[in-house]
Amino acid sequence: MDTTQSRLWYERAQAVILGGVNSPSRAFKAVGGGYPIVMAKGEGSRFTDVDGNNYIDYLAAYGPLIHGHAHPQVMQALKAAADDGILYGTPTKWEVEFAEMLRLAIPDLERIRFVNSGTEAVMTTIRVARGVTGRNKLIKFEGCYHGHSDAMLVAAGSGPSSIGVPDSAGVPQTTAADVITVPYNDLNALVDALAVHGSEVAAVLVEPIVGNFGMVPPESDTYLRDVIKVAHQAGALVIFDEVITAFRFHYGSAAQLYDVHPDLYALGKIIGGGLPIGAYGGSKDLMEKVAPLGPVYQAGTMAGNPASMRAGMACLNALMDPKVYERMTQFGLTLEKGILASAAKAGLPVTLNRIGGAFTVYFTDRKVTQYSHAKASDSERFAAMFRGLLKRGVLLAPSKYEAWFVSTAHTEADVVATLKAVDDTFMEMAQ
Ligand code: PLP
């Protein structure tokens, strides 16, 4: 596969765009370096790069593209939005319709506010929680990613009482000191942390089904319920970061799958149909603490822009038929079985975590239920798989901590071709 043009564009990019990429996760640093593939066109389940090579896409732009590229209804909505003028800075009917649509799907969202990214959505839920409780501390779970706001770029050392240290330069120590990190799927660690810090904790933040150290579901059906219970006992609010999970597995939230009710939700990715978006919401009482009704401030020039609203509604409309989820799940299952069979044939230790059409392949023979397990999985083997698949025309996210996302655009032929590429790659790796 000739990727010369990608290399040349990347070299040119490096002279003007910091590090050659507009988001660090797009660089190939975690998969042995080199230049990332520069894409020119997306169509359905496939990408074409600047050299004309074709790839089956499981990156899905890190999640939003649940319908693949250029879905006809989303494109139609976008074209109509362009024709009507793309930004108003006034209320529009589309934001009302979209908020109603989200509330119908997720009734906990009694009041919603649209923002422009998942980062903004999470950041604002934190401000609301702090504003409402009058407390500063936050508890998050090791390895969960909640966007790049200061407080969320903190990884605490192990142990329930440990105080966070910044994971990024530029995050004040005082901010980090307010963030406590505990392992996911370990209720006792959360209970212990709340025993030490509980009276100061404004919120416990969680990805209800983790997507950021690979796909990791709660180990028990009661885990999320217990997280909410112990947080509430300490007087803390619970924020579900559903930026990845909302509308991923069914037409609604992950909270609904476990029949639980967090206080606040942060949404993003899928709900924008590929356009920039974020949203947060919760009960009327809590949300009314936000300006213009309440003292917690949040605003946005682009918030609720007509293009994102109309593309988002078209995207969700095309998800209303439960059959689309059944199909993604079926393809996910077929991929899972094939990948595990190829790994066994090649003698490679693989653990595969899958929920519906989203899954992660870890090179380890252990179960992966916490960040430390994902971290301990073999990075070099992941890089070898990534590169082996790339040269065979299958594009994954360049990190062992990300997921493969099956979209509604994937076909049986894509699945067959992917499994052939996986089998050949694993045989090559076994040599
Ligand atoms: N929350 C979760 C769970 C995410 O996965 C991400 C992004 O990957 C974010 C928040 C941040 O969203 P954005 O990149 O739109 O700011």
Automatic annotation (TrEMBL):
The protein's enzyme class: isomerase
Annotated catalysed reactions: (S)-4-amino-5-oxopentanoate = 5-aminolevulinate
GO molecular function, one term: transaminase activity
Keyword annotations: Aminotransferase, Cytoplasm, Isomerase, Porphyrin biosynthesis, Pyridoxal phosphate, Transferase
EC number: 5.4.3.8
Position of the signal peptide: none
UniProt GO cellular component terms: cytoplasm
Biological processes annotated in GO: protoporphyrinogen IX biosynthetic process
Cell compartments where the protein resides: Cytoplasm
Chain positions with N6-(pyridoxal phosphate)lysine modification: 269
Gene3D superfamilies: Aspartate Aminotransferase, domain 1, Type I PLP-dependent aspartate aminotransferase-like (Major domain)
Top-level taxon of the source organism: Bacteria
Pathway given in the UniProt record: Porphyrin-containing compound metabolism; protoporphyrin-IX biosynthesis; 5-aminolevulinate from L-glutamyl-tRNA(Glu): step 2/2
Swiss-Prot/TrEMBL cofactor(s): pyridoxal 5'-phosphate
Subunit annotation: Homodimer.
Similarity comment: Belongs to the class-III pyridoxal-phosphate-dependent aminotransferase family. HemL subfamily.
Name this protein carries in UniProt: Glutamate-1-semialdehyde 2,1-aminomutase
Species annotation: Alicyclobacillus ferrooxydans
